[in-house]
Amino acid sequence: MFPRLPRPRPRPRRLRSAVLAVLSVFATVVALAVGVPQAEAASSLPCDVYAAAGTPCVAAHSLVRALYSSYNGSLYQVQRASDSGTANIGLLAAGGYANAAAQDSFCAGTTCIITKIYDQSARHNDLTIEGAGGAGAADVGAPADALPVTVGGHQVYGLEISAGMGYRDNSTSGVATNGAAEGMYMVTSGTHVNGSCCFDYGNAETNNLDTGNGHMDAINFGTECWFSPCYGQGPWVQADLENGLFQSDAGYSKNTANTGTGAIPFVTALLKNNGQNHFALKYGNAQSGALTTTYSGGEPTAGGYSPMHQEGAIVLGTGGDNSNGSIGSFFEGVMTAGIPTDAADNSVQANIVSVGYGGSTGSTGTLTAGSEISLRATTACCTADYIRHQNDAATVSAITSSSSALDKGDATWIVRRGLANSSCYSFESRNYPGDFLRHFNYQLYRQPMVGTTQFRQDATFCAGTGKSGTGTSFASYNYPTRYLRHYNFNVYIASNGGSNAFDSATSWTDDVSWVVTAPWAP
């Protein structure tokens, strides 16, 4: 067996446009205040909102949807391993969602990586796989199928970054330089993070080197506390302004209430910087609610940050010098010319929430790709027990209608086509997007998909009639005589008899037979 993988950002508008923009923002604020979901019009996608507020997007990247109502081009490019062929993945309709089926078809029978993320703005600031830098070797592309997710009711794919992956554009148009003002946001995940440097999106150096204080202006998201104290366990939205991840002008957090976002599956992270004497940090739950400001004040007091010295490159997934030890998830993000108003930020957050990140797949209780399920034990002792994850390990425990929402979520899985064989199955965590059931040393864990052949095989299970005559049994793809089994509350791939205690023949046929049920999580 291979070692266990570690876990772990004006021009005048005509009066009519300005009035419409104000009315749109006002309606959004009212909707947020009363808790009514905002049904965004097609003309109110994030870059439309920012343009109406006088701070147009100069970069707009997304793997999941259009960020302009009129956009109907490509979102990203994939390259398949079998013949190095490439394909651009576009939209189902203008202003709509990614055509993930085109990716599935192109990559069928092989694997694909993401080689380019297209900029939807007229600036064409496209991101490609990052080259070597002062702190890291050349990066590799992220696996294209590592982060399946439901957005707007559609099955699409996000970008899942593991250590050694990153994207960049060192020759951009319109991005802030030398103290110019800018804003940016990204939608990321609070459950796929670590404390290594640096999961960034935003403005960076043009030579992949650390060229000094103030030469970066990027959102950072992770659990790395650069300046102590940080409060809570994170992850935190911070500003990577080079040579530090800043939560305030002093670096360290001055906000004791900012303990991080916690394990929110989808997070809106936002940074605004006037390039001279002020920056602000905000975050929100991308599935519900409004934005919270964690800092709004002066630039860092150390030399070099006031004014800023941005160079105008765009980086995604690494630090400015290609420090590439971080992990993270990216679904969408933009950078603007000038600082957006708070009202525009609120309207964008409302639009993000209206999309329904991580919503129901629309199918439940069956072994079909995209269906949400729970897996119930059939052994006489344990018919109220379900496979769930806890502290990264797969266990079985009783789940009932009175169980907590967390327990119900931990016991819910999304059926995916087998990562190693499309005729088999893989099981993605409902509340940890991009994490799958995977065996290591015969025991089952929940881990992020990193795209290796080993991971794909370890996370693939082939279904057959239950060995006890009831339900379904799941054979390990790469150990086909071993089946998913519960034993002493843990879950293993186990043979019928063997040297390990969990291979015991006693009740083996019952222990490897599971009932596929409706999911516990709504």
TrEMBL record:
Cross-referenced Pfam families: AbfB, ArabFuran-catal
CDD domains reported for this sequence: beta-trefoil_ABD_ABFB (cd23399)
InterPro entries per the UniProt record, alphabetical: A-L-arabinofuranosidase_B_cat (IPR015289), ABFB (IPR038964), AbfB_ABD (IPR007934), AbfB_ABD_sf (IPR036195), ConA-like_dom_sf (IPR013320)
Chain ranges of the Alpha-L-arabinofuranosidase B catalytic domain: 46-357
Keywords noted in UniProt: Glycoprotein, Glycosidase, Hydrolase, Signal
Domain of life: Bacteria
UniProt KW Signal keyword: yes
Domain (Alpha-L-arabinofuranosidase B arabinose-binding) ranges: 375-516
Family statement: Belongs to the glycosyl hydrolase 54 family.
Protein name: Alpha-N-arabinofuranosidase
